[in-house]
Amino acid sequence: MDYANRKPKPKKKSGKSSGQRGKPSARGAAAKQPKQVPWVAIVLVLALMAAFIYGLLSINGDGDKLPAKPTDQQATDELPPKPKEKWQYIQELESKQVEVDVPERELGPPKLMQCGSFRKQSDAERLRAEIAMAGLESQVRSSEGKNGLWYRVILGPYETKRAAERERHKLQRAKIYGCAIWNWNLD
């Protein structure tokens, strides 16, 4: 429907129109009918109120059966003596000193970390420069194997594997991955 181009409806006269004379309006019919009282709801509410009042009265009657409150003097006279502690470990722990025997770590062979192995020396030197930018010093060593000449980029030696792991984590933060830690063997 086109609301913009529609024609306005003609105004109705203030009097009743001929079509509405014989029919009672819905509003007037509802006002003339008496409202029905919901007797079931009223009976249910009264029963619940009676049960609530009965419960309150039964609880109130139990308050008379409580014993009388003793005075402060009677309360202190009736307290039992303080029990003795069954355990003595609390005092013993306060005065003891713990001695721990820590065996010295056996240092294994020194460790080295290899970060790459290349056929071209220029590739090895490029990786060595990236490692230098991460703040670590590396070496390029050539090794002759069954497959020919290889250029290995190594770091170390490290006394412990933990020291090598610490530097490998530095390299990983600099996005240099693939470094392996081995026992020192440059033969």
Automatic annotation (TrEMBL):
Species of the source: Idiomarina baltica OS145
Biased composition (Basic residues): 1-15
Family matches, as InterPro entries: Cell_div_SPOR-domain, SPOR-like_dom, SPOR-like_sf
Top-level lineage group: Bacteria
Regions that span the bilayer: 37-57
Keyword terms, alphabetized: Cell cycle, Cell division, Membrane, Transmembrane, Transmembrane helix
Protein name: Cell division protein, FtsN
Highest classification ranks of the organism: Bacteria, Pseudomonadati, Pseudomonadota, Gammaproteobacteria, Alteromonadales
Region span, Disordered: 1-32
Biased composition, class Low complexity, residue ranges: 16-25
Domain SPOR: 105-184
Pfam families named among the record's database cross-references: SPOR
